[in-house]
Design goal:
The protein is mainly α. The protein has two domains: about 1-115; about 120-195, no CATH class. It has six helices and two strands; from the N terminus they run βααβαααα. The radius of gyration is 19 Å and the shape is globular. It starts with a strand and ends in a 5-residue tail after the last helix.
Length: about 200
């Protein structure tokens, strides 16, 4: 299902205004920031492109904004409160549940719109090319983390606890996922040969 630029600008502006009003009235909240970010992206997409394919690009945008906002909030909490493991675990469970809800709603709306088209060779090529970028970031991050752990043992510096080490490894996985989502969006916008 393809949406024209005027509709995207109207939807994005409406979403920005509603979430900004809720953010001002009720205070800081991950869900309001998520809606605010998604509204800004829709509005910007309406100015940038003549039309957006809802079946491919919008779920990627929602995933990108969702992962960035929700897990950004989680990692901020974890690395500013490294001793509060119980609250960190509760934040993690809440972040995963919220992201699952957002993904299910998004893909349900896309499927309900009748845009559940079969993937073609272009989609598979974009997915392969973007996964190479994500895999490269993942491998580099894991090697850097292994190097950090080895240097802590060799030079007897203050060793990271298991909790922070696990969260650093999880941060590497989330960063690789974000890079893959960004690469897929760029390939859909610029084409597999030009990007």
């Amino acid at each position: 299902m393809v949406v024209r630029s005027g509709t995207l600008r109207w939807l994005g502006s409406s979403l920005v205004m509603v979430n900004l009003a809720m953010l001002i009235y009720w205070g800081w909240g991950t869900l309001f920031l998520l809606g605010l970010g998604f509204g800004c992206v829709l509005c910007a997409a309406g100015w940038w492109a003549d039309a957006i394919d809802l079946s491919t690009e919008v779920p990627l945008l929602v995933s990108l904004i969702g992962v960035l906002t929700i897990f950004g909030n989680y990692f901020y909490f974890v690395f500013t409160n490294p001793d509060d493991i119980r609250a960190g675990l509760l934040q993690f469970v809440g972040a995963v549940v919220l992201l699952i809800i957002i993904e299910v709603v998004t893909y349900s709306l896309v499927a309900a719109g009748g845009s559940g088209v079969e993937t073609d060779e272009r989609d598979r090529a974009i997915r392969r090319a973007a996964s190479r970028w994500g895999y490269g970031v993942l491998v580099a991050g894991v090697w850097v983390l292994i190097g950090q752990l080895v240097l802590d043992v060799v030079f007897e510096r203050v060793v990271l606890g298991g909790y922070l080490t696990a969260n650093l490894l999880f941060l590497v996985f989330i960063t690789a996922e974000l890079v893959e989502l960004l690469a897929r969006l760029m390939y859909y916008r610029l084409g597999i040969n030009r990007a």
